[in-house]
Amino acid sequence: MHARVRAGEPEAFRELFQAHAGLVHGYAARATGDPSLAEDVVSLTFLEAWRLRGRLRDEGESPRPWLMGIAVNVLRNTTRAKRRYERAMARLPAPAVVPDFADELVGRAADAERLAAAKRGLAALTGGERQAFMLHVWSGLSYEETARALGVRVGTVRSRLSRARARLRRLTDAELGGEPVASSGQPSCDRRQWAVRPSEETIR
Amino acid sequence: MTREEPPRREELARLLPSPGAPGLPPGRQLVMEEHLMSEMTSSHEGERNLWRRLVLVAAPLATVALIVGAATVVGSDGVVGPAADGNPWEGLAEVAAGAPELAVASDQFVYTAREVVVDYGGVPTNGQNVLWDVDHGPYETEQWVSPDGGSGWYRDSDAAPDGVPIVVPPEQEEWTEDELPDVDVDAGAEFEIELEDPEIYPPQDRWLGDSVAGVGGDFPATLHQPTWEYVQSLPVDPDALLEKIYDENGSADSGDQADQWAFETLGELFEETPLPPDTAAGMFRAFGEIPGVSARTGTDATGREGVVLSRFAEDLGYRMDLVFDEESAAYLGTRVEQIEESEVLVIGVILDYALTDRAVVDEERQVPGT
């Protein structure tokens, strides 16, 4: 599929989207704490992937590292990505009103609350640690895939995750009496601010 | 000094459990998918042409990762180490430096004929990443390319037996609203946007459109899309050349991956265009600078004997061979063999092709010697 995506075959790209939209959305939702913003990130990621498709290399069997690397970059600067695709995004139809919208809204609120809780745990990590943690632990990328997505060495991923482990242990012990962070259920503060800040820190 | 074990995913997940991923509602995903498709297909036709061209150029390398191959014959190669026969790249470099200078006038064409013996491809099923075999070989290709890469003719016994013209894609233009297909946004509605006629572009076949994109305009020559004119400007000093290659290949890769990519970039240059003698000599010396490159004797896809420069890609578990004629240092062919098991790749030769003719001709579609 790499060759077909690189060759600009729309159907190959459709397959790429169908296979990976959920993965990108999950990552983006957990990174931003905002399922709606995450949808924009998904669209922006694939628009950017289409633009950059010539750079898709034959990095093993899965295009995941390449795609997630683009998603990480889009999240680093969502505003810039939106500006680049302003016209295209303007043509993206707004979410349709579905008949059972009340249920959907409740579901979304619950999602948002869980996400906000998890993000408080992520706050203990630096930007680089957070990215490595989310890609490896929550999105299921291997060490090697995570390294490729972030453009760093595998050893760097390993040390970031080691530091993340140390920080989370301290956090778990000190603040939460041994309970996992995400189950604390404290009310969320300003999650939109959250959504932007951590990603900007990671620009080096 | 004690060293802590690298953290395992399960352990980290206990420390900070995933909040779960709120799913993308299926109706919404469909809207986004069709939006993406319409943005892609409403962009310029010329851009797609470029990539058709790149298919021709890059597909041999491109096919490596997703292809499922079956073992075929590999020559019983004898190993020539640097110790056995001096320094193999230096030997090739000296031969290459003594080759006659080639001249290509602006109204002439570089003719290249290629015999593709093995070309396995895999295609994912819809959304599942499940592959099935596609065996494209054997087939032959011929191309006539102007020295600036902007015009010519391409023939492929499989995908374009009658041939298609090589033309420079038109300039990129802003998309206009009325070029966009209407997208029905009602939830649950069926979307029917015809993107490509499946009769014309069966998804699992190699395909060409009605033209092949040349180099020029918005798509200038690069290391990965070289032309005769472009290679005139390449550094002849091996270190300077390698610096350019590593630099332009990007900094995201490092270590073995970057070395492999540099090796393959040199290979692409040999494949795509004739080279000035000094440039070719510098490229052979550059091979010697890349970690992990070895040399032995062996054969190309058509059985011609030559010096095989090889590199094993640690990440991906395949070995790429570039075969050169020992007497003339001419490039003969490329072979890729998957060595290590991986989830979707099968052990064996997955790509094998030979360059069977290369010449400068006066007329487009003129076969050398006629």
TrEMBL record, chain A:
Segments of skewed composition (Basic and acidic residues): 189-204
A Pfam family hit: Sigma70_r2
One Gene Ontology term of the molecular function aspect: DNA binding
Family matches, as InterPro entries: RNA_pol_sigma-70-like, RNA_pol_sigma-70_dom, RNA_pol_sigma70_r2, RNA_pol_sigma70_r4_t2, RNA_pol_sigma_r2, RNA_pol_sigma_r3/r4-like, WH-like_DNA-bd_sf
UniProt entry keywords in alphabetical sequence: Sigma factor, Transcription, Transcription regulation
Region (Disordered): 177-204
RNA polymerase sigma factor 70 region 4 type domain residues: 122-168
GO biological process: one example: DNA-templated transcription initiation
Domain spans labelled RNA polymerase sigma-70 region: 16-84
Source organism, top-level taxon: Bacteria
Family stated for the protein in its record: Belongs to the sigma-70 factor family. ECF subfamily.
Name of this protein: RNA polymerase sigma factor
Source organism (scientific name): Streptomyces hainanensis
Automatic annotation (TrEMBL), chain B:
Spans through the membrane: 54-74
Keyword flag Transmembrane helix: yes
Keywords: Membrane, Transmembrane, Transmembrane helix
Region (Disordered): 1-26
Compositionally biased intervals (Basic and acidic residues): 1-13
Name used for this protein in its record: CU044_5270 family protein
Species assigned in the record: Streptomyces hainanensis
